[in-house]
Amino acid sequence: MGRLQLVVLGLACCWAVASAAKLGPVYTEGGFVEGVNKKLGLLGDSVDIFKGIPFAAPTKALENPQPHPGWQGTLKAKSFKKRCLQATITQDSTYGDEDCLYLNIWVPQDRKQVSRDLPVMIWIYGGAFLMGSGHGANFLSNYLYDGEEIATRGNVIVVTFNYRVGPLGFLSTGDANLPGNYGLRDQHMAIAWVKRNIAAFGGDPNNLTLFGESAGGASVSLQTLSPYNKGLIQRAISQSGVALSPWVIQKNPLFWAKKVAEKVGCPVDDTARMAKCLKVTDPRALTLAYKMPLAGMEYPMLYYLGFIPVIDGDFIPDDPINLYANAADIDYIAGINNMDGHLFASIDMPAINKNNKEVTEEDFYKLVSGLTMTKGLRGAKTTFDVYTESWAQDPSQENKKKTVVDFETDILFLVPTEIALAQHRANAKSAKTYSYLFSHPSRMPVYPKWMGADHADDIQYVFGKPFATPSGYRPQDRTVSKAMIAYWTNFAKTGDPNMGHSAVPTQWEPYTSENGSYLEITKKMDGSSVKRGLRTNFLRYWTLTYVALPTVTDQEATPVPPTGDSEATPVPPTGDSEATPVPPTGDSEATPVPPTGDSEATPVPPTGDSEATPVPPTGDSEATPVPPTGDSEATPVHPSGDSEAAPVPPTEDSKGAQMPVATPVPATGDSESAPVPAMGDSQDAPVPLTSDSKGAQMPAVIGF
C-alpha cells in the first residue's frame, strides 16, 4: 500500500471517529443532563454514558420516595453517586448516603446516526436486601455492574440504579404506620422514570426488560407481580431468585421493628409512637441497630434476616403466589446456577471445602433437621433418607459434600424457581416462559475440583467481564459470556432469546408445564444443551411427598433470635443442650426432636407455617400448577396436617402445604469458613488474576 493510500486511510479513520454519533445534552423531566461519549475504536462506534441522574428526591427515613424537583442548567452526569446508606461489611460503621436515588445509563451509538427505539434493560442488584449498589463492586474503577459490554454487544440500552436496603429500605410495623417495602418502591420509581424519559436517550419506552440476580432476581419477580407496574414492564429475567424463594417475604415484620426500636430507645408498645420516633432517629443508628450474626449460628439464617419485603396489602397486595395473573403478558426467563447453594452450605458446613475434613451423617442430619422444622421429625427423617439414598452406592466424601450443596440449592433456589416458572406459564396470556441452568464451573482457586457454578458466578458473564478484563479470563469464559449476552439481549429485543441482534449457539426451547424444558449454559453448547426435567425426583419429593407430611403447628420449631446483644449466638428456645439431632437409626423414637418452644420465650417470627414459601396445594382440581415431575400419577394428595398449616395458596385450599425455610448467608471473619466472593462492597472487590487461568473471578454480590 502506497504512502498516499495510508494517509487517506488515516484521514478516513480520523474522520470516522470525529463524526461518530453522540447524544450530547439530553432533556429529561428534571432538566438537561450531559454524560460522556466514549469512543470504542477507529470505526466510529461509541457509547454514551450517564452516571448519577436523580430519579427521585433525596430520601426521608422510612418514607416512600418522592419525585425529584428538578434542577437549573445542565446536570453533569459523569460519575457514580454514593450507594444508599448501609452497614459496612464489619457491621460496626456505615457508608453511603440518604441522598442515593440515582441511576446510570449506557447508550450504544454507531457512527452514522444516534440510536433510536433501542430495547432497554434495567438491572436490579442483589445483596440480601441488606447491601449493594447500582454500580457494584469495583477495583481500580472496574465496576461489576458496568453496562458497557451488554449495551455495545447486544445493541441495547442498559440502566442500573440504587435502592434503599436494610432497615431503611424494609423496616415495617406490619400496619399503616410503617408499611415497609420502601426499597421496592424505590425500584418502581426508577422503572417509572425510565418509562417516562428513556425515549430522549434513544430507548423504546414500550420495550423495558428487568433483570437481576439473587435479591435482585427476586425483586424483578416482585416488580412483575405488583399492580403498581401494570403496563410498565414487557419482559423480565430472574437469576437465582424469585418472589417465591423462602428468603424473600417477612411474615412478622413487627418483631424486627421492635428490635430496632428497643436498640435506639423508641417506644415499642404502640406502632404509631414507634413510627414517629424511628423517623426522627439518626438513620445511621437505625442502620447499625440491626446486625446479621456473623458466626456460630445455631439455626438457619432466615431467622435473622429481618428486613426484607412484606405483604403490605398495597405494593405487594397478597402472597406472591396469588399475583401471577399480573405477569400474564410479561415474557419471563428464570433460572439458577447448578451449585447456587454452595455459598450457604459452606457456612453451614465448612467441611465441604476442606479435603482434610469429612462430612458425617450426623452433620448432614443436623443440617436437614434445621431446614425442615416445619415438618418436624418426620420431615427431617424423610428428607434425610431421600438425599442420602446414593450414599450406600457411593460413600465417598465427594458425593456426600455434593449432597450437602444439592440440598441447599434445591431448597433455596431450584424448587421455588420451578414453582415460579409453572405459575408464570399457567397464568400467561401472550407471555413466553424460558428456564435455564447455569453450569459453567466457578473459577475460585480455593474451591474443590468437583465445584460447579456457585451463587452469583453468572453475573460476571452477563456483564461481559471476560471481554472487559480479558487477561483475567480464558477463551472459554468469553464463549460463555458471548452466549449469555446474546440470549439476554435478544430476549430484551424480541421476547425470544433466539431472535434478535446476536447469533446464539443453539435454539432455546420455551418452557411449558408439560415439557419442563431448560437450557443448560456451559462453555460448549449445542442441541444437547436443551434438556427436560431438571432434578425431577427431588422436585417431585418437595412438591408432592414433603408437603403431604403433617405440619408442626405449635411453637415446637421456632428458634429465638438473639436478644439484647444482636451479635450473640442464638440459642434454642428451651431445648436440651444435648439435643443435637442424629441420623435416624431405624427407630423413629430414637431421634431427638428439634428444639421445642417455650411459651414464656421472647416473641419470635413465626418460622413454621407462615414464613415458608407456599407450595401449590395438593389434590384440588383447581390447584395451582406444579412444575412437571415426569410422574403420570403426580397429582398431589392433601397433606394430613392441621388445617392451619400454611398460608392459603391461590386455590382457596386451606390445607395447602409449603416449602421448608432456610436462609444461611456467609459468615465473615470465621477462620473455619470457606473463602467467599466479595460482598458487593466497592472497597473489597478483588480483580481477576491476570496470568493464572484458574485465577479468582470477578467479585459477586453475596447473600440473596
From TrEMBL:
<dbReference type="GO" id="GO:0016020">
    <property type="term" value="C:membrane"/>
</dbReference>
<dbReference type="InterPro" id="IPR051093">
    <property type="entry name" value="Neuroligin/BSAL"/>
</dbReference>
<keyword id="KW-0325">Glycoprotein</keyword>
<dbReference type="InterPro" id="IPR019826">
    <property type="entry name" value="Carboxylesterase_B_AS"/>
</dbReference>
<keyword id="KW-0719">Serine esterase</keyword>
<feature type="signal peptide">
    <location>
        <begin position="1"/>
        <end position="20"/>
    </location>
</feature>
<feature type="region of interest" description="Disordered">
    <location>
        <begin position="555"/>
        <end position="704"/>
    </location>
</feature>
<dbReference type="GO" id="GO:0004806">
    <property type="term" value="F:triacylglycerol lipase activity"/>
</dbReference>
<dbReference type="InterPro" id="IPR019819">
    <property type="entry name" value="Carboxylesterase_B_CS"/>
</dbReference>
<keyword id="KW-1015">Disulfide bond</keyword>
<keyword id="KW-0964">Secreted</keyword>
<comment type="subunit">
    <text>Interacts with CLC.</text>
</comment>
<keyword id="KW-0732">Signal</keyword>
<dbReference type="GO" id="GO:0030299">
    <property type="term" value="P:intestinal cholesterol absorption"/>
</dbReference>
<comment type="similarity">
    <text>Belongs to the type-B carboxylesterase/lipase family.</text>
</comment>
<dbReference type="InterPro" id="IPR002018">
    <property type="entry name" value="CarbesteraseB"/>
</dbReference>
<dbReference type="InterPro" id="IPR029058">
    <property type="entry name" value="AB_hydrolase_fold"/>
</dbReference>
<dbReference type="GO" id="GO:0030157">
    <property type="term" value="P:pancreatic juice secretion"/>
</dbReference>
<dbReference type="GO" id="GO:0050253">
    <property type="term" value="F:retinyl-palmitate esterase activity"/>
</dbReference>
<protein>
    <recommendedName>
        <fullName>Bile salt-activated lipase</fullName>
        <ecNumber>3.1.1.13</ecNumber>
        <ecNumber>3.1.1.3</ecNumber>
        <ecNumber>3.1.1.6</ecNumber>
    </recommendedName>
</protein>
<dbReference type="GO" id="GO:0008126">
    <property type="term" value="F:acetylesterase activity"/>
</dbReference>
<keyword id="KW-0443">Lipid metabolism</keyword>
<dbReference type="GO" id="GO:0004771">
    <property type="term" value="F:sterol ester esterase activity"/>
</dbReference>
<keyword id="KW-0442">Lipid degradation</keyword>
<dbReference type="GO" id="GO:0046514">
    <property type="term" value="P:ceramide catabolic process"/>
</dbReference>
<dbReference type="GO" id="GO:0005576">
    <property type="term" value="C:extracellular region"/>
</dbReference>
<feature type="domain" description="Carboxylesterase type B">
    <location>
        <begin position="26"/>
        <end position="542"/>
    </location>
</feature>
<dbReference type="Pfam" id="PF00135">
    <property type="entry name" value="COesterase"/>
</dbReference>
<keyword id="KW-0378">Hydrolase</keyword>
